[in-house]
Amino acid sequence: MDYVKAFLVGGVICALIQILMDNTKLMPGRIMVLLVVAGSILGAVGIYEPFSQWAGAGATVPLLGFGNSLWKGVWKSMGEDGFLGIFKGGFTASAVGISGALIFGYIGSILFKPKMKS
To answer: Quick check: 74 and 93 in contact, CB under 8 A?
Structure first.
């Protein structure tokens, strides 16, 4: 049942974002930034953590979850390092995910021979 709940929650998040993309003139990059910022704000307010525990991977995989991860890293690092934690925490919390995306993207580019659009 956890898989179904994660699938449905992730699908609803993606459907809402698709509706936002279709009905506004916002560019996809700005929508992605809005999602990360919204995840950070919801994490700071204390709403996102209970939601992500209930929804599982359906809430942690989209960009909202990335924003929440950044917030948690900054919050933890601020407690340990003070003011400098504001600058360090986000990088520490997201380093593994970003590194994985870069590494697997590079491997994919080697395997599938990407070409420029014409």
So the answer is: yes
